[in-house]
Each structure stands twice: as structure tokens, then as C-alpha cells.
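Tutorial handout. Part one gives the primary structure; part two gives the three-dimensional structure as C-alpha cells.
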Amino acid sequence: TLPGQARPRDTLGEYVALARQAASTLPDDRQSKLLALLGRSCLRHVRCEADDCLAQAARLQAGRAGDRLHLLAETYAEAGQGDRALQTAGAIDSFSRRSRALAAVAVAQAKIMDLQAMERSFDQAKRAAGADDEPPERVESLLAVARAQGSLGRRADAAATVTLAFQEALGVEDDARRVALLEGVALAWARAGQLDQARAAARWMGIPF
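Part two.
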């Protein structure tokens, strides 16, 4: 070791311990986010450290909701802890954020080939989207679920979810907002390979095809 340099650490576990010690000086919300990210980075290397980081992040986020719970839920899913992932996502107060978190959980479950869990998470994501009080929020949440399905190559599932979004979009009373949402629907159908439906949405926007 050269003068002024830190001694090389022998194991990744020691680096993780140092990072957790540094994180402990941060406010709870920032500490929880850092620990969730740290847990994610450890998943393939030091699983026991990853589990400890996730557990500590969850304790710090008890009773909270929002982006950090979204991250924590997704990371639990990547770690193969599906029950904890769904429990964490279910603690998010906002239906739209909960729906997006559940869709992210589904994608993470697909990556570890837990396809039955993925299906359940996508179903829950669509139910959460449909529970929102505001029709525009329901449309945008459903489109987010469709994008997640499309990212996995599940174009038929994505198209079916876009159909739900289309039905919700037609009920939006504000003309400008309805047109903007229908534009999103048309693009989503086109991505799913459903060009006839995309043209139908465009006609509802007043664009002749």
C-alpha cells in the first residue's frame, strides 16, 4: 500500500459494511434509499449482506410510501422475495404509484423466471390502476402496466391492457386531456402491433385514417 492510500479490503462484505456505516449518518429516508440500492448491488455476490440491507431499509421505511417503497419492492422481487415485494408495494398509498410498483415487481419476477408470480403481480397492478378515483390517472397507470408487459415481449397482454386504458380514456370529460390520453393509447397499441386499434384511437382524436 502506498503512503496515504487506504488498505485494500479483503472481501466485498467489508466494503458493504463500510457503506452501511457511512449510510447510518444520513436521514432515514435517504439512508433507506441507499440501503435498498446497496442491497440490490449485493444480490449476486453476498446474499446475506443484501438481505440485511433490505431488512434495514424496510425498517426505516415503515409507515412511509412513495418512490423509495417502489425501489424496495422491486429489489425484494429481484431477490426472489415475492411476498415481501408485494407487501411493500401494497403499503404505497397512491394507487397510481402502487400500480407502477407492482408492474416493476412483475418485471423483476420475470427476470428470475418466476412467471406465475409475474402474472399475479401484473393482475394486481391492473387492479390498483383501476382503483384510482381519477380517470386520467387510471389511464396513465394502465399504460404504464402495458409498457412493462411490452418490455417483456408480452405484446398480447400489453394490447389487452391498452384496451382497458382506451375504455377509461373515452370517459375523460376534458377534451384536451382526453385527446392527450388517446394519443398515448394509440402509441401503445402501435407498439403492441395492433395497428387497426391504433387507427381507431386516432379517429377518436379527430385524426382521419
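Part three, for discussion. The mean pLDDT is 78. The chain has eleven helices and no strands.
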